[in-house]
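Thought: the user wants the 3D structure for the chain below. I'll pass the sequence to the structure tool as-is, report back what it returns, then summarize two notable features.
Action: structure_tool
Action Input:
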Amino acid sequence: MNVWQEFLRAEVRERVNAYTKRSGANHGTAWHHLYDAYKDQGRTVPDVKNKLQSSDGTALERLLTVAKTM
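Observation:
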């Protein structure tokens, strides 16, 4: 298990959780918002149920950058 990737996943989850607390949105809506913003940057979202777990290091870094804007 890659420690850096696990750290990035935890950071993305933390950002999404913070967004739900601030906005009052439910978690599903928050994740859709994150992945929609990610797609708007021309990125490809994996077509699997657990998108965050299936993402690699580079994708996770880019996803965290998007999550920081939420």
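Final Answer: Structure generated. Residues 3-67 form one domain. The CA atoms of residues 15 and 67 lie 6 Å apart.
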